[in-house]
Write a structure and sequence with these properties.
Elements (H helix, E strand, L loop, with lengths): L26 E2 L6 E2 L4 E5 L5 H15 L3 E5 L5 H9 L7 E4 L2 H7 L10 H4 L7 E4 L2 E6 L3 E8 H6 L10 H13 L1 H4 L2 E3 L10 H7 L1 H11 L12 H13 L13 H9 L3 E7 L2 H6 L11 E4 L10 E6 L3 E4 L5 H16 L1 H8 L25 H10 L4 E3 L9 H15 L5 H18 L1
Parallel strand pairs: 3-4, 9-10, 12-14
Antiparallel strand pairs: 1-2, 5-13, 6-7, 7-13, 8-10, 8-11, 8-12
Helix pairs in contact: 8-16, 13-14, 16-17
Length: 442
Amino acid sequence: MRKKGLVAFGLAAVMTASALTGCGGASDKKESGKKEAKGTVYYLNFKPEADAQWQELAKLYTDKTGVKVNVVTAAANQYETTLKSEMGKSEAPTLFQVNGPVGLASWKDYCYDLKDSDIAKQVTSDDFLLKDGDAVDGIGYAIESYGIIYNKNLLKKAGYTQDDIKSFDDLKKVAEDITKRSKDLGFSAFTSAGMDGSSDWRFKTHLANLPIYYEYKDNKVSDMDKIEFKYAENYKNILDLYMDNSVSEKGLLGSVDVATSMAEFALGQCAMVQNGNWAWSQISEVDGNTVKAEDIKFMPIYFGVDDENEGLCTGTENFWCINSQASKEDIQATKDFLTWLTTDSEGKAYMYKSTDDGGLGNAAPFTTFGEDERSSDPLAAEMYKWMESGKTSVSWNFTTFPSQTFKDDFGAALLEYANGNMSFDKVEKQVVDEWASEKGAN
């Protein structure tokens, strides 16, 4: 997700802890009778909002095993820059992440082949293996879904339930009706569709995933060197719906960050917001939050193409990779750490417990997690419900977008469109042209 931090944290202080109780491959120290662990783990964390949890579990693992686990957290939107800097140091990360095939292209020479590892054998689907030929270069560690999050209580106050919204046309009717009555109701239909750099990923990648998904589906492919942007009109329709029925006016969207947008939802200023299952922590931690866990629900981003069968957008862009340039001892220590996270009861608890309970809130795609070890996050529960509903989950295809530059340029064009300085036809042309030029150059 990401893309998902609320606060631009600086690099977290490196957590170090030392103990003499060792694990696999340790040698006895004659003078003490205790074992000394070989190898260390250095994880460069992608998610600023999860820094505290990672620091805590790193200390727990070190205290239990004697293996040092250092966690450094990159600032929001600075992961790639930080990774390049850290990889140039003598003590480089042993564990890092890439965001799919495009991210892998930059780092595949640093990726240890995990195909024979325990963690690779535990994934529930090959969809969570990031491959380069036969090599498994990355392991997806969290199932994530995004769609339209809604406050069931506010929707009810407006006279509607989820049963009234089964298509784009239904969604448009409800949103516009709420807008007409917003002064009497006391809330808007949608949060502000913030085009600030911390927020526009929701539209330049997550929303943009849908037209690419349907275009790939039509062509029975998983990537294309050129696109038509065949479903640009559908994309424009839903984006306009967000912008025209939100808390803020279009011309103000460039100054709205993701924290403000999520706070609007948390404080009951609107009924709906496009975001993912990770957003519960962003909502529940807002001072004065009025949204109860039992009232927060998901619906698909109804796109006007296959609304009857469409489910949530479900997948992952977060893949763990082990640094192949690290020492053998550090590589083994890192593999052992990942095995502990996905098999040990304490490690698994950190993975699946909600952020409210001090966990990472991950819906982990591993066979080692039982039914009672699913994420306890209310939006994760909604995600599982939709996955098991018989609807077709929309796959994540924004991981195939040409580059970060392409996405940033797309976001800048969307802001110009929101401000009335650029026609959508020009936005569409830019997307098509930059896709072709960047993919053709790769």
